Amino acid sequence: MKNNEEIRKLFKLYLEGKADQQQEETLLRYLDSAKSDDSQFSDLIQEAWSKEASVREDSSEVDLEFGEILAKATIRQQRKSQRFQVLKYAASIALVFSAVLGWYSYQRNQVKPAEAIKMLSLTTLQGEKVKILLSDSTVVFLGGSSTLKWPSRFVKGHHRNIRLEGEGFFEVKRDILSPFVVHSGNIQTQVLGTSFNITAYPSDNIFSVAVRTGKVRVSESDKGVLKKLSLLTPGMKLDYYNKDQRYVVGTAKARDINSWTTNRFIFKDDNLFTMLSKLERYYKVRFELKSPCLAGRRQFNATFNQKSIKEVMEQVRMMSGDNIHYKITKDTLITVWGEDCK
């Protein structure tokens, strides 16, 4: 049996798609032996991840077909499932490597029917917050007027793909074999295990991704091609402008990123129109702005911690120097106007 360093070299060749048949057989024999330890390859896997091209073809069609096959199938022999555990991850993080084709072909010939994966969907009401536990133990806090779509179970060794419209805070269960990917419009957010917030309402021009813990890769998807935008670490935030497809990377206080999940709402340099739009989602209310000139007149920086909507509006009035007035009707309709605004 070859020594540990030689085995690592074989695994690296496999990841790069350069291993010949004899080298692959040697690697398979090692993985099938009692000496096999997946953790010894973790650094090679991370290196392959980091070297993945920033612009590549996003194999959505292959990904979909592959998912459908795995959704209907399972490995017939438990021993073979363990044997290929590491190689399955190599395929999941490196679809661009030629080694995937051989592995994919092998899997197609080794499966039998299994329970199909169902797609689940949940849409929240205005002012509603929901906590969702996914099958992999990932926790999602879904904000008001938002929609989350996810599979009833995830397939080990394959991407954990979900879709979000609206706002969600994610505490992703770490699984190096199965990267977690959130699809929101043209934006894809990919992680292994971390916590982060996404705001992606279809009606908004700006989509945002902010990281509280761990590391997140944000990419733009355009006609099946992924373009890497930025790698975010704790306290970093990316704003993506949908209309002109540009983005800006800034900072945010890590501890404030999921503050909305505990009814602590933070506004930073937001104009009145933007602030009222967010408040509509946080509270079950509707705003009627009678003085449009107020919308972008000034920027607001405020934190509302466990406040009722009446307390919030009273604070807005005071911050405006008593230039902004409001009237609450039946607790759901709030009329806003300005004294010096026609």
Automatic annotation (TrEMBL):
UniProt keyword terms in alphabetical order: Membrane, Transmembrane, Transmembrane helix
Membrane-spanning segments: 86-106
Domain spans labelled FecR protein: 122-217
Signal peptide: none
GO MF: sigma factor antagonist activity
Residues in Protein FecR C-terminal domain copies: 264-334
Keyword Repressor listed: no
InterPro entries: FecR, FecR_C, Ferrdict_sens_TM
Protein's name according to its UniProt entry: DUF4974 domain-containing protein
